[in-house]
TrEMBL record:
<keyword id="KW-0732">Signal</keyword>
<protein>
    <submittedName>
        <fullName>Uncharacterized protein</fullName>
    </submittedName>
</protein>
<feature type="signal peptide">
    <location>
        <begin position="1"/>
        <end position="27"/>
    </location>
</feature>
Length: 79
């Protein structure tokens, strides 16, 4: 075998390895994070979806009431 045929053979083997690796990776169906996006697996349509009902729009009513009461008390103490 000549040197060029060995080099061509190695090049073909490397290309075939990379292509087969890409095929295996793309066919596994796992969740992938790509450029800040979380992309679903191919089986996301069969996945069970959990439903979380909407909660109150303002999440801190007690803290807001406590702050309002503290401001009112502070205002009374200043007089």
């Amino acid at each position: 075998m000549s040197r060029t045929s060995k080099q061509q053979r190695l090049t073909r083997l490397a290309v075939a390895t990379v292509l087969s690796g890409a095929c295996v990776i793309s066919a596994t169906g796992c969740q992938v994070a790509l450029n800040g996006q979380t992309l679903p697996s191919p089986y996301y349509l069969q996945d069970d979806v959990q439903y979380f009902p909407a909660g109150p729009e303002f999440k801190l009513p007690r803290e807001a009431a406590a702050l309002k009461a503290a401001r009112a008390e502070e205002k009374l103490n200043r007089r």
